[in-house]
Amino acid sequence: MDGSDLKTVAQQRQAQVDGVLERFFSLAKNRAEAFGTQYVELWEALEANTTGGKRFRPRMVFAAYTSLGGKDTEAAAYVGAAFELLHTALIVHDDVIDHDFTRRGIPNISGSYRNRALNAGASAETAEHNGISAAVIAGDLALFNAYRLLDRSGVAHMTRQRLLEVMDDALFASAAGELIDVDFSISAEMPRVDDILTMERLKTAVYSFECPLQAGAILAGASDDVVATLGDFGREIGIAYQIVDDLLGVFGEEAETGKTTIGDLREGKRTVLISYATSTAEWPRIAPLIGKSDLTEDEACQVREVLISSGARSFAQGLARYYANRALARLAEPHIPPALRIELHPVADAVLGRVK
Question: How many distinct helices (H) and strands (E) make up the chain?
Fold first, then answer.
């Protein structure tokens, strides 16, 4: 297939996933009507937080499934939608943990309900509590129903059981990674690069890459060797992706990423970039600025300059390439079908292409 054909297929797959989610939310909102308009509005807010994403995790499910000969794209759409809903649950709860009230420049669920409470005359403290409470409830609903979507996929019992185990692995690992990240935030010492990579892999890469790829392979009836190797590929490319994501969080173009390039610095986020910088002679120049809540753009520019001159950016870029190449090496295993290599090579290329 040429580029236009591939784009058309990708759009068709996304449309199927969107269709599953639209039906799911339509049924949920109809059911919620019996409990009052407030409950319907919460479901609408949750749906809004699930709509408009890149559907990256469903793409991983479909990439493995179809390239391994899977034909039941409706079942794959349900599995992909389940991982998308899991993603929604985790980012809603992550915003609660981080005490964030916006995402991509607009109010998230916490922010929407906080603003609503403020407009109703609540104090700032009460409004924030209201917003956070609504987000916890919404995240719980998304989390539980991610499993329900797997149940509704229509696949055979044994396959469904394996998919549920993979979903459980994804959630179990993500919770561990989130806890490590929380612990990092109160530690006086900067964690080592290896510790940061472990956290990022558990918190995000497992449920975003490893498990969706394995789920697609299981759904297609692939061998245990293929399932295991896809997990290995997902681990390596997922780590590379997270390193690049942290780079873009400081050096990216906001218009392209939809993410501010000053937020991570103000937060004092523990990243490979910052961890490496602490080991250099230039660290004292920016140490007081990392985690400064009112960091100015001029100060942020100073931090970026030091991250470049100290070699931190180059180190992170090289590390991302290293893990992406490790991922590609896993695809060279003899039991990986050529169609799967062709499908996944662009994933690694896209990650590497994000490294500027």
Answer: 17, 2
